[in-house]
Amino acid sequence: MGPQADPRRVGAARAPDRRLDGGGDSPRRGLRPRAASLWLGPGGEFLTARAEGIIAADFFHFDTALGRRLYAPAYLEHGTRRLHITGVTAHPTGEWTVQQARNLAADLGIRRESLRFLLRDRDGKYDKAFDRVFEAEELDVIKSALRAPRMNAYGERVIGSRCREVLDHIPVRGEAHARQVLAAYQRHHHEHRPPRRATGYHPMPRNSPPR
Question: How far apart are CA 171 and CA 180, in angstroms?
Answer without folding.
Answer: 12
